[in-house]
């Protein structure tokens, strides 16, 4: 089925089977492999992408349903090739990842949170990533990363400890 | 690709969706897909065609009608969560909605989808059963409605006609001066399926007398149901009396039993949660001078 997808600001015209999930389409047809296929039934959050401004499970929607929506994947959050977004930087610095499988989903869930709220409480952060499973970190460094990124986005993107 | 192959059609209206169902009895409606897509992925559902109603603009709304709050079938759960009207006029649903899935599933999941799929543990279905909502649908005979008491009949089974497209649900508003609500749930992890959930709404008159009390229990039986607590509304603050009345009301239910929670556990927890939700509702009704 002919489908137009707007991914990271680029329009793609594709021929996809209706039963192909958005995550499979992103990975196989567009070679955007940052969204991961974990459980493939909506539990783990590894496939999280942003659709029309809100994080959604790309395994729980078909590519044909995403036509006309604005899709942002992890590949679309860095300001330029080879650079990292403030959130990505913060995840590196606080060791907010170990194996990295959950990381794109975590960052996009956090991205949506910080877009609406630059002063999130710990509870806000925990709620925002409550649908994303991490089996390595124990979540503490992830929460720390998001909180660090929020602090930086309120001011400047500088290493911790450098006075503003 | 995990689901079996199907055709995909976007319906232009609820009547169109119904006509497409008449045309092909193995067709199935999809809106948010947060319940249906996992079932497709596991091939528990194998429809020949998916009829997408998510883009029908007139099915997404939250309206304040004279007697009810009316919610369109494809209204996304996140809109209910953020609605000031719901928070003010339908506080029980406001309280329950944060228990529905996770933020990313609430972004796509719809109110009608939850009611149409009728998972025994679904919170929106529980609120509909507790308050006695009316469900509206369109089929080949035109627009019709079903009272919630005649709607849920089994796990993932309702009396909605096979060719019907749900278009909305009307939740009764309570006009009493002091209204309180309570919602309690036990699950394996935050936002996961409820083992048991309980929803309550109570009303008091100006003299502090309880005039109305309703209680609903989800996750316990094949579908969410209302447990009769009207007889104890004069003793609504008496925990022992409440526990006895709730125990009697669920006596005939055969609780679901699975790896996570045995039937006996569910029954015990149901009494405790139901009692707690009622007492919280009472406290809230008495605490807020202008709850409504």
Q: Identify the CATH class of the largest domain in chain B.
A: Alpha Beta
List low-pLDDT spans of chain A. none
How are the strands of the biggest sheet of chain A laid out side by side? 2-1-5-3-4
Task: For the largest sheet of chain B, list the strands in their spatial order.
Answer: 4-5-10-6-7
Q: Tell me roughly what share of residues is in helical segments of chain B.
A: 25-40%
H/I helix tally of chain B: 10
Oligomeric form: heterodimer
Explain briefly what this protein structure is.
The complex is a heterodimer of chains A (164) and B (292). Chain A contains five helices and five strands, in the order ββαβββαααα.
Structure overview:
The complex is a heterodimer of chains A (164) and B (292). Chain A has 164 residues and is α+β, with helices and mostly antiparallel strands. Chain A folds into two domains: 75 residues, Beta-grasp domain (Ubiquitin-like (UB roll)), CATH 3.10.20; 69 residues, Orthogonal Bundle (DNA polymerase, domain 1). Chain A has a five-stranded mixed beta sheet, covered by helices on one side. In chain A, strand 3 and strand 4 form a beta hairpin. The longest helix of chain A is centred in the C-terminal third of the chain and has 15 residues. The mean pLDDT of chain A is 94. Chain B has 292 residues and is an alpha+beta fold. Chain B has three domains: 46 residues, Uridine Diphospho-n-acetylenolpyruvylglucosamine Reductase, domain 2 (2-Layer Sandwich), CATH 3.30.43.10; 116 residues, 2-Layer Sandwich (Uridine Diphospho-n-acetylenolpyruvylglucosamine Reductase, domain 3); 110 residues, CO dehydrogenase flavoprotein, C-terminal domain (Enolase-like, domain 1, 2-Layer Sandwich). Helices cover 32% and strands 27% of the residues of chain B. Chain B is built from ten helices and 14 strands. The model of chain B has no long low-confidence stretch (mean pLDDT 95). Classes of the chains: A alpha+beta (164), B alpha+beta (292).
């Amino acid at each position: 089925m002919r489908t137009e997808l707007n991914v990271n600001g680029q329009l793609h015209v594709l021929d996809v089977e209706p039963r192909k999930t958005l995550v499979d389409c992103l990975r196989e047809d567009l070679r955007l492999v940052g969204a991961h296929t974990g459980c493939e039934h909506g539990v783990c959050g590894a496939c999280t992408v942003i659709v029309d401004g809100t994080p959604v499970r790309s395994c729980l929607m078909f590519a044909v349903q995403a036509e006309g929506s604005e899709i942002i994947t992890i590949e679309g959050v860095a300001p330029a090739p080879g650079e990292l977004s403030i959130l990505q930087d913060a995840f590196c610095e606080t060791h907010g990842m170990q194996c990295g499988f959950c990381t794109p989903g975590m960052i996009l869930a956090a991205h949506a949170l910080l877009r609406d709220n630059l002063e999130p409480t710990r509870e806000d952060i925990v709620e925002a990533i409550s649908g994303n499973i991490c089996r390595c970190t124990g979540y503490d460094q992830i929460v720390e990363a998001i909180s660090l990124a929020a602090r930086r986005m309120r001011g400047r993107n500088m290493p911790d400890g450098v006075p503003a | 690709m995990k689901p079996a192959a199907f055709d995909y059609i976007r319906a232009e209206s609820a009547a169109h969706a119904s006509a497409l169902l008449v045309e092909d009895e193995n067709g199935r409606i999809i809106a948010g897909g947060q319940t249906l897509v996992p079932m497709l992925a596991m091939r528990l559902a194998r429809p020949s065609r998916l009829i997408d109603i998510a883009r029908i603009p007139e099915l997404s709304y939250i309206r304040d009608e004279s007697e009810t709050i009316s919610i369109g079938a494809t209204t996304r759960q996140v809109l209910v969560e953020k609605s000031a009207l719901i928070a003010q006029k339908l506080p029980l649903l406001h309280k329950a909605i944060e228990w529905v899935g996770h933020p990313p599933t609430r972004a796509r999941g719809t109110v009608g989808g939850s009611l149409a799929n009728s998972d025994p543990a679904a919170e929106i279905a529980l609120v509909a059963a507790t308050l006695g909502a009316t469900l509206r649908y369109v089929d080949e005979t035109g627009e019709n409605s079903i009272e919630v008491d005649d709607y849920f009949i089994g796990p993932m089974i309702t009396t909605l006609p096979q060719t019907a497209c749900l278009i909305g649900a009307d939740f009764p508003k309570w006009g009493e001066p002091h209204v309180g609500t309570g919602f309690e749930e036990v699950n394996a992890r935050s936002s996961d399926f409820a083992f048991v959930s309980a929803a309550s709404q109570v009303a008091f008159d100006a003299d502090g007398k309880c005039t109305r009390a309703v209680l609903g229990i989800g996750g316990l039986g094949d579908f969410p149901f209302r447990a009769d607590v009207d007889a104890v509304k004069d003793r609504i603050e008496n925990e022992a009396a409440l526990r006895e009345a709730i125990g009697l009301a669920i006596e005939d239910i055969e609780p679901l039993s699975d790896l996570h929670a045995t039937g006996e556990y569910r029954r015990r927890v149901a009494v405790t949660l139901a009692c707690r939700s009622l007492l919280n509702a009472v406290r809230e009704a008495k605490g807020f001078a202008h709850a409504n």
